[in-house]
Specification:
Blueprint lengths: L1 H12 L2 H4 L1 H31 L2 H40 E5 L3 E7 L10 E6 L2 E12 L2 E12 L10 E5 L2 E7 L3
Antiparallel strand pairs: 1-2, 2-7, 3-4, 4-5, 6-7
């Protein structure tokens, strides 16, 4: 029995792989490399063919165009909202109220350095122009604010009879109505 085992062992060792184990590992490594290369080549070829497909390119272009249009729409919407916020700020600085006896224009002096000299009121016919300017400094940045508002009144309003009164942080301009 020992002879059979020895004969079998000798027969196995007579093969090329048994006599040259280093060649065996090199051959297996070469086959693995060629298999990996073939797999990589096939996947790359599929991907390249897909990328060059005109239908795929059109879908990508449509997606990019929709994305850019959405981005531009959002950007325009932000600009509109920014303009509306600025208008709301302007309206909060100077506002007009009407009573039975007169018109009352209230100018908030806080953004204009709390100085009524920074508010200029001029009348030209039936048009009243209010120009106010001020500056503030925060975090090392200087911010300059200048507002001009025009009000057009009917012929029954005499702008020469207007009066200006300071009440706290507000400058109030009274324009009497003639009824």
């Amino acid at each position: 029995m020992d002879e059979n085992k020895e004969n079998m062992h000798n027969q196995e060792c007579n093969s090329f792989a048994c006599r040259h184990p280093l060649m065996k590992y090199m051959f297996v490594s070469l086959l693995i490399f060629l298999g990996a290369f073939a797999a990589f080549y096939v996947v790359t070829d599929w991907h390249f063919k897909r990328m060059m497909d005109p239908a795929y390119q059109m879908r990508r272009m449509d997606k990019m165009i929709r994305s850019n249009v959405d981005y531009m729409g959002k950007m325009a919407e932000r600009q509109v909202q920014k303009g509306e916020r600025m208008m709301m700020k302007d309206e909060s600085y100077v506002r007009l109220e009407k009573t039975d006896k007169n018109y009352k224009i209230i100018v908030d002096l806080r953004p204009f350095d709390d100085d009524e000299k920074n508010v200029e009121v001029t009348a030209n016919g039936n048009m009243l122009t209010i120009t106010a300017a001020g500056s503030s400094s925060r975090h090392g940045r200087e911010k300059i604010l200048k507002i001009t508002q025009n009000y057009m009144f009917d012929d029954d309003i005499n702008l020469a009879n207007m009066t200006k009164v300071r009440e706290g942080k507000d400058l109030i301009i009274y324009i009497p109505t003639e009824k």
